[in-house]
Specification:
The structure is a homotetramer of 343-residue chains. By secondary structure, chain A is α/β, with parallel strands linked by helices. The first copy, chain A, folds into two domains: 2-125, Rossmann fold (3-Layer(aba) Sandwich), CATH 3.40.50; 150-311, 2-Layer Sandwich (Dihydrodipicolinate Reductase, domain 2). Helices cover 30% and strands 20% of the residues of chain A. Chain A is built from eleven helices and 14 strands. The first copy, chain A, has helices at residues 12-22, 42-45, 62-65, 80-89, 106-113, 131-140, 149-163, 193-196, 210-222, 256-263, 313-327; strands at residues 2-7, 27-33, 57-58, 70-73, 93-96, 127-128, 143-145, 172-178, 201-202, 228-234, 241-248, 270-272, 290-295, 302-309. In chain A, the strands form two sheets. A seven-stranded parallel sheet of chain A has the order 3-2-1-4-5-7-6, with helices on both faces. In chain A, strands 9-10-8-11-14-13-12 form a seven-stranded mixed sheet. In chain A, a hairpin with a 6-residue loop joins strand 13 (290-295) and strand 14. In chain A, helix 7 (149-163) runs parallel beside helix 9 (210-222). The radius of gyration of chain A is 19 Å and the shape is globular. The two termini of chain A are 34 Å apart. Chains A and D meet through strand 8, strand 9, strand 10, strand 11 and strand 14 of A and strand 8, strand 9, strand 10, strand 11 and strand 14 of D.
Chain lengths: 343, 343, 343, 343
C-alpha cells in the first residue's frame, strides 16, 4: 500500500487518474491539489466520483505532498518542473503526466514549450515512461516522464519496424486523429461542442509539440536520425487516438506480422490484432490497451500500421498507473483490468 | 462460484453482460449462445473483449445450458418464454432481460407484445427484479424478470412520492429521454448515425410497451390505479436515460428531500443528490447507479424529479448482475463497483 | 433594397444572420461590428462565409450605423439597450435578438436579468416579434424584440390551445430540449464537446430567464394568469429545440387537429403535421420552420404537443429576417426558402 | 427550363439532389422513382422536404422517364447500366451518381465491382464529371459519370501538383476521412449511431473501390502510372470528407501556393485558402465547395495538402447539379449558392 498524491486534478487526465486510483487496491489517495478548486469536494466537480472519492481539493503545498510515496502531476506544462526538485529531495517519487521531463535536450524543450526549463539537470535522470521500451529503468526511477498521447500511439506502432531496420527511416508519415479530450478541459472556443463536433480538421501541421518527443523515441530505436511528417487531426469524439502510420519497406520479404507479434508477446497492454484488421478506437475506450494492425496494400512496398489507444488511459492516466505499478513492484496490470466500454 | 450462461449475447445488453460478468469474481462464464454467430469467437464480434473473454458463441441448446446455475436471457421479446419452463424444471435459475415475464397479466402482455404468452402460468411466480422494491423476493426467486430501462429510471424516481401518498397519482407525467443503444443493435434505418445523431424527437407517444410495466409498478406502490402520461424521446447519444418526472403535490409542506434520502438510505445503487442538483446521464455512464434530484420550481405545487441511469447498466445488464448477486447470496455490489467514465 | 447593419456579429446568431442576409436579395449589408474582432475579415472568423461576405468587423460606432435602414443587435443581454434610443432617434429601425426588450415590465426584467433597464420607456413601444401573433404591429414597429428560442417553440405549440380556452392554463408543463448552440459561442466549460456530448441533463429547473417571457405571451393569449412549469434540457447536438408540451383538456370533445390546422393555415413558417406525427428537430435544421404535431395518448384528457424549431433560425436569426421582411414590406418568405439539411 | 427525373431517390444522395433541385430555378422535377417506396409521398420519407417537394415516388419505368431532358441516377452500383442505353437511345441525357461509368476499363470495373458491365461500349463515351478537368467534354456529353466522394477530394487536392510534374508520382499517400453518410442510408450495423459514433477506424485498407477511380484520374493528369496508397477512415460525423495528402517534391523551390491559386483561379467551387490554413469539413457543410490548403512542414521535401468537401454535395449531388448546369448551358453556379451551415 502506498500513499499517493495528485497535483492538479481538475483536468481530464486528473479525473481519469482519480477513476483508476480510487479502484486501485494498493493505493491510498492522500491528497489532490488544485489552486482554483481548493476546499471543494472532488465529487462535486466530477459527479461520476460521488460515492468513490471523498477527498477535497487542497492548495498545492509541499508539506502536504511530502508524506506521499508517489506524486502524480496532472498539471499544465511548466508547472511540475517548479516543484519536482523539492519533492525528489524529500524522497518523494514523481510521475509527471505533462511534458516537462519528456525531452532530454533543454534547448529543444525551451524551443517547443516557449520557456526556459526550470531544472535542466533533471532531464537526463528522468526516465521516459514508455514501459514497452524502458521497463527496467522505470522500475528504479525517481522521476518518470509519462509520454504524450500521440507519442504513445505512434511509437508503439512504429517501434518494431524501426528497431528491426526494415524501413526507410528518413521518410516516415504519421497521420494521427485525436478525440477532443486531448485538448483538455480548458474553456477554449475550438473545443466547444458546436465547433468541434460534426467536423474534421488537421491542426498544427507546421509543427506540433509532440513531434520532437516522437522523433526522440524513434531515433533512439533507430540509432540514427529519422525524418517524420506528423499531422494531427481533431476528430469529433471525446476519447481515442487513431494513428495511421506509413513507411517504406527496405526488405520486401519482411515478415511483419510475426515481427510485431514477437515484439509485443509479453506486453500486457499491447494487442497485435490479426493481419489486415481495422482496430476501432472505441475498442479501447476506458482501457489501457494499445491495439495494432498491419497492412501492406496491394502487396506493395508501403506498410500501413494502424495503432489505437484511449488518449486518457494508455495515452495518459492508465500509462501513469502502469508506471506506478512498475516503480513499486506491483503486478503491472494491477488496477488496470478495465474492459473497454462498448458501445 | 457459480456457472453462468447467456442466451443471445449478440446485442448491446449481451456485450454489456459480458463486460460485467467477465470481471465478476464469483462467475464462471460457461456458455454464450447465438444462432446466427454460432462458432464465432465472442471477442471477434466485440473486440473490446479481446483478452478478456475466450468463449465462442454456440447454438442455444438446453443440454449446454442445463449445467449452469443461472442463465441470463438477453434475447428479443418472446424468446425466453420458449425455453424458460424447461430450464426451471432442470433446476436452472433464470434472469430474463427481455420483457417476457415483466407483466403479471397475460392478456395485457399479449396486447402489448402482439403474441400469446407461451407460459402464462409462470407470470405470477416471476419476480420483478427491481431490488429497491423486491429484494427479499428476488433472493428466493427461480425466475427474475429484469426491468426495462425506462421503467427502472421512472419507478425509482416516482416511488418515494407515491409510496408516501404525497401526490395526485391520477396525473403523473414522465418525459423520458433515451440514448440510441436502447433501440438495440439491430440494423434499423432509424438507428443509423445519420438518422439519429444531431436530432431529437419523441416516439411512440400513442403508447409504448414500457407504459403498462411502469403503471403496474406504480400501482402496486400506490395501492390504486394511476394515470400516467409517458413520452419517450430518442436522444442523440449512445447510452443514458434521463427521466424528467412531474407530479402534483397534495401536501404543500411535504419534506421531499428527506423523504427520498431516507427511502434510499440503504440502497447501494441509488444516489439522492443534494436538492436542486441536475444529474447528467454521463455521470452514470458504465455504472450501475441511479442518480436522482428533486425540484419544486417557484415553490409551487408541481414537483419535478430528475432521474438518470445508464440504460445498459442499471437499466439492463448491471441490474441483472445485481439481481444475480442477491439470488446467490453475494454482496449485492460485487462486480458492480465500476466508476462512470467521464468524460 | 435596404441598408442593414449588425451589431455584435461574432456569436452563433451573428453568423447565422450573416448566412441569411448575405443571400437576401433586398439586403445590402453595410456594417458589422465587434469590439473584440474589429479589423478582422468576417470570413476569417467564419470560414463558411469565404466568398460570400467581404466585410470586416468594425468598432460599434453610431456614425457607421446611422446610415442603415435597419440594425440587428446580436449582442449579449444588456448591450442593445445602451445604443437603441440613439439609433431610434436617428431614424434607424432596430431588431434586437437579445432579451433587452422582450419583457414589458421593467421591474421583472431587472429581476431576471440582474441589472436595471437602461431605457424602460421603450419597453411598451417595443413589439414582441412573433409574427404569428403580432404581424400587424411588427409592420409598423421601430423596435422589434425578437423572441427567445425556447419561447418561440413553446408559444407556437401552446397558442392555439390557449387562445381557444380549451385547456386548464393553471397547470401547463413545457419539457424542452435544446441543442448546445443555444448556449452561445462563449468559451464555457459546460459547452465543451467533452462535457456536453454523450450526455443529457436538465438545467435551471429553479427558474430560467425564458420563463417570464413565455408566461407573458401565454397570459396575453389566455387573458389571464397562467401556471407554467418550464424545464429546459441541454441535448447533445448542435442545433434544434424540441418542446414537449403537456396540458389538461377541459373539453374532451375538442377537435385539436383542425384547430391547429386552421390557426396556422396562412402561416408560411408553421407546419402542422398529420395527427400523431413525431417531428424531428433535424427536419428543420437550417430552415425557418416550426413543425408541430398533436397527440392525445390513450384518448385521455392530457394533450401532448410536440413543437420543433432550429433555435438559430426560427428561434433567432431566421425569425429576425422574417420580422425584417414584414417591417419593410417584402414578401415574408424572402430569403428564407432554405430547405433543411438532412441528413 | 428543363424536365428532370431521378431514379432511385431514397438514399442520401437522392434526398440531397432533391434539396438542390427543388430550389433550382431552371429545373422542373417531373419524376422520382423508387421500387420500394412507389406511391409514397417524397416528403413523407424526408420530412425536411415538406412544403418543397409535392412529388410521390413512382415505379422506375422508361415511359415515365423518357419525357425528361435529363435523368439522374442515384441508385446502387450496377443499376444505372441496365437502363442507361435505352434512355440515351430515346434522347435523354444522363448523369449517374453511382460508379457504373466511372472507370473506362470494363475489366477493371468488373474486378472491383464484382459483376460484368452491362454496357461496356458506353464506357468510352461517358465523360468523367469532374468539371475542373473535363468541363468542355461535359458540356456536350450525353452521359456523365459523376465522380465518387473520395476521388473528388483527392483529385482536386493532388491535381495541380501532378499536372505540373513537381512530385514523385510513384509514392503518393492519401489518408482520407469520411463522415458516415458516405456509407449510405442502408440499414447496416456498422453505420448505426452506437457503432460509428465515438469511434474512429480505417477500413478497406487492402483496397477500396475508389482507388482505381482516383488512380485513373491521376494517371491521366500525370501522363504515366502512379503509385497511390489510399486509406479511407470512417469518422464519427454525418457529412464531410477530409483528405490529407502526402507527396514528395522533386523541386525544392516549387512555388506551390501560387501554383494552386493559378490552377483554380477561375473555378467557382474550389477555394484555395491562404498558405498553412487548416480547412474544417464543417466550413463546406451543405455547400458545393472544395477547400484546399497547402503545407510544407519544417520546409522539408514532403508536401501536405488538406482538401475538404461535403461528400453529399461536391462529392455527389452538388457536383451532379454543377454538371447539369454545364450540360444545359446554365451558369455553372445556378442553384448552388448555398452557404455552409455553421455551426
Amino acid at each position: 500500500m502506498i500513499n499517493v498524491g495528485i497535483v492538479g486534478g481538475t483536468g481530464y487526465t486528473g479525473v481519469e487518474l482519480l477513476r483508476l486510483l480510487a479502484a486501485h487496491p494498493e493505493v491510498d489517495l492522500q491528497v489532490i491539489t488544485s489552486r482554483s478548486e481548493a476546499g471543494r469536494a472532488v465529487a462535486q466537480l466530477f459527479p461520476n466520483l460521488r460515492g468513490h472519492v471523498a477527498l477535497k481539493f487542497s492548495e498545492p503545498e509541499i508539506n502536504r505532498l511530502c508524506d506521499c510515496d508517489l506524486v502524480f502531476f496532472a498539471t499544465p506544462n511548466g508547472t511540475a518542473m517548479q516543484m519536482v526538485p523539492q519533492l525528489l529531495a524529500l524522497g518523494v517519487r514523481v510521475i509527471d503526466l505533462a511534458a516537462d521531463f519528456r525531452l532530454s535536450d533543454a534547448k529543444q524543450w525551451q524551443q517547443w514549450y516557449g520557456m526556459p526549463h526550470a531544472c535542466p539537470e533533471l532531464l537526463n535522470e528522468a526516465v521516459y515512461g514508455l514501459p514497452e521500451v524502458n521497463r527496467a529503468a522505470i522500475r528504479d526511477a525517481r522521476l518518470v516522464a509519462n509520454p504524450g498521447c500521440y507519442p504513445t500511439a505512434t511509437q508503439l506502432g512504429f517501434l518494431p519496424l524501426i528497431e528491426s531496420g526494415l524501413v526507410d527511416v528518413s521518410r516516415l508519415i504519421a497521420d494521427v486523429k485525436s478525440g477532443v479530450s486531448g485538448a483538455g478541459r480548458g474553456a477554449k472556443v475550438g473545443s466547444l461542442l458546436c465547433e468541434a463536433s460534426e467536423s474534421m480538421s488537421a491542426y498544427s501541421v507546421a509543427g506540433h509539440r509532440h513531434l520532437p518527443e516522437i522523433c526522440q523515441g524513434l531515433e533512439q530505436a533507430a540509432g540514427q536520425a529519422v525524418g517524420l511528417t506528423f499531422v494531427p487531426h481533431l476528430t469529433p469524439m471525446v476519447r481515442g487516438i487513431h494513428a495511421t502510420l506509413y513507411a517504406e519497406l527496405s526488405d520486401p520479404d519482411a515478415q511483419l506480422q510475426a515481427l510485431y507479434e514477437q515484439r509485443y508477446a509479453d506486453e500486457p497492454f499491447v494487442d497485435v490484432m490479426p493481419a489486415q484488421s481495422h482496430p476501432q478506437t472505441r475498442s479501447v475506450k476506458g482501457a489501457n490497451t494499445c491495439r495494432i494492425a498491419l497492412h501492406r496494400p496491394q502487396q506493395g512496398s508501403t506498410v500501413v500500421i494502424l495503432s489505437v489507444i484511449d488518449n486518457l488511459v494508455k495515452g495518459a492516466a492508465g500509462q501513469a498507473v502502469q508506471n506506478m505499478n512498475i516503480m513499486h513492484g506491483y503486478d503491472e496490470r494491477l488496477g488496470l483490468a478495465q474492459i473497454a466500454l462498448l458501445p
